[in-house]
TrEMBL record:
Pfam families: GFO_IDH_MocA, GFO_IDH_MocA_C3. Residues 12-132 form the Gfo/Idh/MocA-like oxidoreductase N-terminal domain. It comes from Plantibacter flavus. Residues 141-295 form the GFO/IDH/MocA-like oxidoreductase domain. InterPro entries: Gfo/Idh/MocA-like_OxRdtase_N (IPR000683), Gfo/Idh/MocA_oxidoreduct (IPR051317), GFO_IDH_MocA-like_dom (IPR055170), NAD(P)-bd_dom_sf (IPR036291). This is Putative dehydrogenase. Keywords: NAD.
Amino acid sequence: MSTAPATTPEGLRVAVIGTGQRAYIAEHVATSPTSASVVAAVDTTEIGRGRARQLFGDDIAVFDSHEALIAQGGVDAAIVTTPDWTHKEIAVDLLRAGIAVYLEKPLAITLDDADAVLQAAYESRTPLYVGHNFRHAAVVRLMHEVIERGEIGAVKSVWVRHFVGNGGDYYFKDWHADRSRVNTLLLQKASHDIDVVHFLAGAYTQRVVAMGDLAVYGDIDDHEDRSGQTMADWFSYDNWPPEAQRGLNPVVDVEDVSMMLMTLEHGITASYEQCHFTPDYWRNYTVIGTHGRLENIGDTAGGTVKVWNRRRTWSTEGDVEYPIAGVEEGHADADLDTMNEFLAFVADGTPTTLSPVAARQAVAAGALAAHSLRNGSIPLDVPPLDPALVEYFSSLTASTAPHSLDAATR
């Protein structure tokens, strides 16, 4: 079990570290079934500290570094929504200080850093939760339920196409475009989908090979330093076509189109394709089993998961079709579920449905895929994780969780 911090009569005292675009997920703390409240915030910029007070009230304590927060004390848990390259240092410091951590995905931008975070949580016995919220998305739960009912038989292959229609605004106008800050969008963006591939297949990636390119945004020479801004300050659907984008990040050296192939455990295969200059924005999963296949058309409410399970020629209609529930846009419902799960885990040790091992495996596949595509598409094997860490984090994961992949026997 986790070493859960003792709560105050008012509940868990929570800090928010990083008050940029994703800090709003901390607003779910106040509505959680677990008694908790945001009492502190950290941001390295004056604008960010002002934003913290706007989001969480003037009475919270505000700091300019996570070190200052740790030195002050008085918090039980921290929600870390800082840029990706800072995750490892901040998470390790918090865990060693005994402060439970909700860490936005990806866990880290390199496999070594990901393993260092897991090691710190293991050694300190401090709760660590990685915010792979898409596991809780209605479309993913629905597809998993179809698979668990056996409607398509045993899963043999998973194909994912990710049309990132907002990619120019979301990922090429700030630090996301700089590989020294993000490594690859096969982590920042695709870690969601790699994790879902593992979830639906019931297996982790063992080998990857990839290719990709900076096909469009590398040719745009209009750049701007957007320090102090967040994505909401520049986003517009009028920023179209992609070649007409202006004000890109001063450094743009991550791929805007990429493809990776994965060999998973148990002989399962998978593919993932990501493009940041499509007009539409959604994910399409195809899962092929021994008795049929499923595919989602749309990935939020109003969409459909279709199942084909009899021989035929082509048809746009499935043999069975299931409507997707949840929100009509975005993933607010999944954010809420992940936050509730984290707070319950910290407060009373309630087992989680996703462990840091799964988050590490997503980083492993994405980071190695980036290395492959940048080095002649060489195939690379995922190195194993220390069995002691696998066993420890498995003990904190619900044994009844669907496809709990962290058992040492997997």
